[in-house]
């Protein structure tokens, strides 16, 4: 109840920010001193929170790389950002986050540019009411929200470590998750069943993918600490934001009138992007890794999401899956 009151009232937490804080406020803060010439990759940056995140980081002078399935939408985002920030450098790649081959092609293309990589924001996400499969014959929500980002992180991690070593600037990886991850029960979290479910529920699939995003953070943080790498990885709950995912998910269990009333309590996209920008930029959390943030403050995730053995098991199973599809080197 206390946390709900803080959220509704917009009361700031230890970071100085709260649920009402915007991406604009975060990037203007003096604690977010951004060195020049940083490069950030942002998936899902053609709509919603992703667009706002890209716009905010571009205003800080960052080079923004957008892997996008819809090149027309991506071009529109690029034009809008450069209209506001004329010197912004925006690079677009055609990429389908649900396709392993497409993600691998993007990573190869980006690495061929020879650019540094300071920030990776695994933001893209979908919610599907009906069972759909990716070109790899994997349930679409899990393929897009988790597997595509797992693969992208795996293929770009060495570049991030190398960039941090060469520049002395800490690299940061951010996985977009959701408070809905806490709805998943341990006995319902099985990789093989999530890849090809016999019965499908959109909310269950979405919550499982968001739990996987946090477990991914936990295991990669452990691996990075073991290597003494100057790269951190954290998970972010953006809040309940007025986006396309919410509109897709509410259909079927909320009437339009109830949705209208509820929407008045929802975050704007700028408020939704604030926590991502905070975790990507703030010096207050320099060196902090393997954590879960909400409303620009460190928060608690579920017991299952904190299970390091579960995180390691999921990483190993996912790596084995990728080896079968893409012949990745052994772990």
UniProtKB/TrEMBL annotation:
<keyword id="KW-0560">Oxidoreductase</keyword>
<dbReference type="InterPro" id="IPR036291">
    <property type="entry name" value="NAD(P)-bd_dom_sf"/>
</dbReference>
<protein>
    <recommendedName>
        <fullName>Short-chain dehydrogenase/reductase family protein</fullName>
    </recommendedName>
</protein>
<dbReference type="Pfam" id="PF00106">
    <property type="entry name" value="adh_short"/>
</dbReference>
<dbReference type="GO" id="GO:0016491">
    <property type="term" value="F:oxidoreductase activity"/>
</dbReference>
<comment type="similarity">
    <text>Belongs to the short-chain dehydrogenases/reductases (SDR) family.</text>
</comment>
<dbReference type="InterPro" id="IPR002347">
    <property type="entry name" value="SDR_fam"/>
</dbReference>
């Amino acid at each position: 109840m206390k946390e709900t009151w803080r959220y509704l009232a917009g009361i700031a937490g230890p970071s100085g920010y709260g649920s009402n804080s915007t991406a604009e406020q975060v990037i203007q803060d003096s604690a977010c001193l951004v060195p020049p010439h940083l490069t950030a990759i942002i998936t899902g940056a053609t709509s919603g929170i992703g667009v706002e995140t890209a716009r905010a980081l571009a205003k800080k002078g960052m080079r923004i790389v957008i892997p996008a399935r819809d090149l027309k939408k991506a071009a529109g985002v690029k034009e809008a950002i450069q209209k506001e920030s004329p010197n912004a450098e925006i690079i677009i790649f055609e990429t389908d986050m649900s396709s392993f081959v497409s993600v691998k092609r993007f990573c190869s293309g980006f690495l061929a540019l020879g650019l540094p990589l300071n920030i990776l924001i695994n933001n893209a996400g979908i919610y599907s009411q009906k069972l759909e499969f990716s070109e790899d014959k994997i349930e679409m929500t899990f393929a897009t929200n988790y597997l595509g980002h797992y693969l992208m992180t795996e293929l770009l991690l060495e570049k991030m470590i190398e960039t941090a070593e060469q520049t002395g600037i800490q690299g940061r990886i951010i996985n977009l998750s959701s408070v809905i991850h806490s709805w998943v029960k341990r006995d319902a979290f099985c990789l093989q069943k999530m890849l090809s479910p016999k019965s499908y529920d959109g909310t269950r699939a979405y919550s499982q993918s968001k739990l996987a995003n946090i477990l991914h953070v936990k295991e990669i943080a452990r691996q990075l600490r073991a290597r003494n790498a100057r790269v951190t990885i954290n998970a972010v709950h953006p809040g309940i934001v007025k986006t396309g995912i919410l509109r897709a998910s509410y259909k079927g269990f909320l009437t339009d009138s109830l949705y209208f009333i509820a929407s008045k309590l929802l975050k704007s996209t700028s408020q939704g992007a604030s926590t991502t920008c905070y975790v990507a930029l703030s010096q207050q959390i320099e060196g902090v890794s393997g954590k879960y943030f909400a409303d620009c403050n460190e928060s608690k995730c579920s017991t299952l999401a904190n299970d390091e053995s579960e995180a390691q098991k999921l990483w190993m199973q996912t790596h084995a899956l990728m080896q079968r599809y893409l012949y990745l080197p052994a772990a």
